Amino acid sequence: MIYITRKEHFNAAHKLFNPNWSEEKNATIFGKCANKNWHGHNYDLYVTVKGEINPDTGFVINLKDLGDLIRTDVTEVLDHKNLNIDVEGMNIMPSTENVAIFIWNKLAAKISIMGGTLHGIKLYETENNYVEYFGE
Amino acid sequence: MIYITRKEHFNAAHKLFNPNWSEEKNATIFGKCANKNWHGHNYDLYVTVKGEINPDTGFVINLKDLGDLIRTDVTEVLDHKNLNIDVEGMNIMPSTENVAIFIWNKLAAKISIMGGTLHGIKLYETENNYVEYFGE
Amino acid sequence: MIYITRKEHFNAAHKLFNPNWSEEKNATIFGKCANKNWHGHNYDLYVTVKGEINPDTGFVINLKDLGDLIRTDVTEVLDHKNLNIDVEGMNIMPSTENVAIFIWNKLAAKISIMGGTLHGIKLYETENNYVEYFGE
Amino acid sequence: MIYITRKEHFNAAHKLFNPNWSEEKNATIFGKCANKNWHGHNYDLYVTVKGEINPDTGFVINLKDLGDLIRTDVTEVLDHKNLNIDVEGMNIMPSTENVAIFIWNKLAAKISIMGGTLHGIKLYETENNYVEYFGE
Amino acid sequence: MIYITRKEHFNAAHKLFNPNWSEEKNATIFGKCANKNWHGHNYDLYVTVKGEINPDTGFVINLKDLGDLIRTDVTEVLDHKNLNIDVEGMNIMPSTENVAIFIWNKLAAKISIMGGTLHGIKLYETENNYVEYFGE
Amino acid sequence: MIYITRKEHFNAAHKLFNPNWSEEKNATIFGKCANKNWHGHNYDLYVTVKGEINPDTGFVINLKDLGDLIRTDVTEVLDHKNLNIDVEGMNIMPSTENVAIFIWNKLAAKISIMGGTLHGIKLYETENNYVEYFGE
Known about the structure:
6 copies of one chain form a homohexamer. Chain A is of the alpha+beta class. The first copy, chain A, has helices spanning 23-30, 63-78, 96-113; strands at 2-14, 39-51, 81-82, 117-126, 129-133. In chain A, strands 3-1-2-4-5 form a 5-stranded mixed beta sheet. The longest helix of chain A has 18 residues, at 96-113. The first copy, chain A, is elongated and about 60 Å long. The two termini of chain A are 20 Å apart. Chains in contact: A-B, A-C, A-D, B-E, B-F, C-D, C-F, D-E, E-F. Chain A binds chain D through residues 1-8, 48, 53, 56-60, 62-64, and chain D through 16, 18, 20-21, 29-31, 92-98, 100-101, 127-134, 136. β1 of chain A pairs antiparallel with β5 (129-133) of chain D, so a sheet runs across the interface.
């Protein structure tokens, strides 16, 4: 069993705002992240796949294929988008935690079909904070 | 003459969109950066000051004072904001080039009063592109 | 279950020196780290908390609260200090390993009160070496 | 139980090429990595050792000794080499996965003799992809 | 006048070897870099263009166009190649210095046609050494 | 004319304290940097040399020789030292500015003898502040 990780990027706008709360409560809980006119981030995404090594290739999974999958199913969906408005299927507060789970759900089944097992999603929102999700 | 640089951060939303152009022309020129619902970045800002060393302190300029100035006059103005909407005095397309010049104009006179000379602004929009401005 | 990590910094002086040993033995075991007049480092600290996502916020833990806790209980205690002399309660050789455990002990109970579970401490002494501690 | 990691570097040439396949199949599977005249990388290697802390030193393992071992047994063997031709004992496709396992096998027994337990090898081939191996 | 920089990557093999010298002299001067079977690097390339800001776009130069030019004229020419053998027109020792000048010569005229002025090439061979060339 | 830069590291303790001032004034001006028991940093040092390319080697200067010079004349002098106490010839407040000039003075003449010209010293005290000195 060996683990391989691919890094990709996307840039997006979002805000953290709970519509069931007053503006005051949103400002108290979310601080500047509640700015009604949005803010944004450069997100760094690390996708880790585990599996056995294929003796013909030396690969757990072909990184070119994994990179293509991440681009078509994740970064083209999220890059230069507003995570609160523009992303089909993301019907949830776009905290880093929820975006990481959204990405897991986009990739896990397709990576299984490619012969690997999705092990983890690591998503940096800034260089000072990141989330990891392992599917359980 | 010696040069000292201070790094600060801010996160913001923006879009690149020329209101004198059609949507098609905006999309052709600005690509995904023209997304009407915004996108955003983690900006890294480097402010470089030059001057003579004060023999009492060993400093060109006190970095704590410089950091305080950058925070009050730049990062509190730009952090978690929408650069097209929220920033007083930024009445211009918020390209990295124009944001760098906006920051220069915010800082140059005040750094002179503190006894240094603003030498340059370096502004990273992503880890793959940055702008430098030297005031002329 | 999801994991969120916050990065903070502190700068400190220390030396590695066992008072039960001769100067020669200290120099043999600790090399330049035994310099009697101290040396120092920029420490990078990563604090990882795990838990369930709060559906009202999308958060495991509010990062602003976590950051405030790390600053009051860890970085204000260690930053610009001499780890052998200045830190109340650190009555032990200030190796990276022991400093990581010291930080764990400062944070674990308070993070539980905030509703999360401290998962791990990762402490970089230089960019070429770091320690991880998971509480057991 | 605590974990300590040491980072080292090496630069090497390699190609990915299966001699049982046609040139066309190699190009299809390995893309530009199959270039017959080689290409190369700056590899970043992280070696993680776990163990109990020695109360006399505060160390799991003396990092100077660990660094010396990695240099004599790994980086002097791999640095500025062609991984397909120059490395005794590496009789396998030099994918990042296989190089990571090769490094594990070079280090695990010797780290046990030094009193620690090799926990993991993390090997970056580029800043955008890395492999982790934990010995099982 | 403002300066904008675009970062790109390529991976390549090379060796440093002067055919007019003996193997011994090559080994003395170039050390491990003279290994006859090649070694390689991940090169990081920074291309800096200067110019006036176009008021319609806020740009010195459209970074998408600049990125396309660097990819077609530089990284597709150098990526996953052997710099001693595979690169048409590079009839010179592939030291970092000479590769930087080769890249300058590939780009300067075309950037002029695009309306900017090539200001500098910065080429990292490893994270510990880089070359800068300003065309004179 | 081309520029080549070599990066090296050292770790050191220091404090900023003017003995002609009261403790209160030192604390006001230098803040936590005045802690009487020292603090410390991981310093990153970039040494830039300019010159013509030697056609026999493709080099401005042999980086191995430059690295050896920096190690013997700078990093062995400063690494794991207390910059206020341990460094012969550094009879000055060890601000980053003054340490950068100290390093320039150690290297400039010897680099001339090696056939290059020292162009600049860039010294990072933390990832958020650095000094540059060009000898005038």
